[in-house]
Each structure stands twice: as structure tokens, then as C-alpha cells.
Design brief:
The protein is α+β, with helices and mostly antiparallel strands. The chain is built from seven helices and four strands. It folds into two domains: 18-106, no CATH class; 118-194, Glutaredoxin, CATH 3.40.30. Bound molecules: FE2/S2 (inorganic) cluster (FES).
Length: 211
Amino acid sequence: MSGPPNEGHNEGHHPADADQRTIDLKESDMGEEVRQCACCCEEASEEELLERLDAVIDEYQDKPGALIPVLQMAQGIYGYLPEATLKHIATRLRKPYSEVAGVVGFYSFFSTVPRGDNVIRVCLGTACYVRGGKAVLDAIKSRLGIDVGETTEDRVFSLEVARCFGACGLAPAMSIGDEVYKRVRPSRVPEILAKYRETAPVEEGALNVAG
Ligand code: FES
């Protein structure tokens, strides 16, 4: 996903390694959840996942700015970034755990809790905000019974906010996975969400939080 250089950052946190900020981060790279894929392949064991992670670290560890690509790949392997994985990465890259955790906290697309199969991002950039993005966000929160940063109990949805999708002329915008929805009205939220559930849409507030 293209966007301003600081898009996706969490305000108020700063990674320790300035070189890492120069890496072009793409949120689309973050969505691959190898462990939870929907095909018929078998779920990998913890040992196999660790082997994959170590292979990634072997490949990147001597390159400058290795931390962020390793974290991206680790999130692709595990679906999120468990604390034990962050500690393993810190040890293998010979970095303080605090630095690794700081980078993860800085970029909003890194997650230390399991995400749902469908990540909803509601744009709260200026154009979307003034055209009702907050009302769309509130409608989703109410419908799913979760807040920003949380995941429905059945792990179908996670909810996040974004700054701009580059669709400002068709604000307010939101995305679910790779699909971008434009000129969204709160009244359309149930219909949009229902596309991602095989079962009937849930009642308002029927689901609660996992992580
Ligand atoms: S501000 Fe929402 S798409 Fe640009």
C-alpha cells in the first residue's frame, strides 16, 4: 500500500534504529497469515514455524536494517508477533528486547495479538473524518462489539484505523483485507460485514473481544 512516509506509525513511539525508518513498508506484505491460510494444507507445527523464522533471520541478519523485514516475515509466519518470537528475534539479531518491542509498538500494522481473518481498517484521515469516517467506525464497533485494536471472539474480524487510502475524493473510505470500500455510510456497515461471514450477521454487541 502506498501512502505518506509515516503512514501506519503509532504516534508517540519511536524506533531506536533510525535506519529502519527508511525501509519502504507495505501493509499488503503484512496480511499473509501462513498459519491460518484457508487452503487444505496442514497447519505447521511450532517447530516448523521456528525453522522458517530462523531461515529468515539467517538470510537477513547480516544486512543493514534487518529488524523490520524480519518482523514482517515473522508476522507472516505466525500471523502475529508473540512475545516469545520477539525475544527470539532480539537474541538472534543481538539487539535489546526493548528495541525490538519499541519498533513493533511504533508501527501500527505489527500486532502482538492474533488478528482476525479479516482486518477492517477505517480511514480517519482528514477527508474521511469530516465526511463521516468516525460514524462509520462507530457503526462497526457497535455491530461487532469490539473497539479499535481488538478482534472478535470468533477471529473473523479485527478492527483498526488508518490515515489515508488515497481515495479522499470518495470519502469516507474503509478497507477489509485488500478490498477498499468508498463513500461508506453507517447504514451500509451490516451489509458489508455480512459478506465476510458465512453465517448470518451478528446482532449488535453480540460478540466480544479476543485479545
Ligand atoms: S483521508 Fe481517507 S482516503 Fe484519504
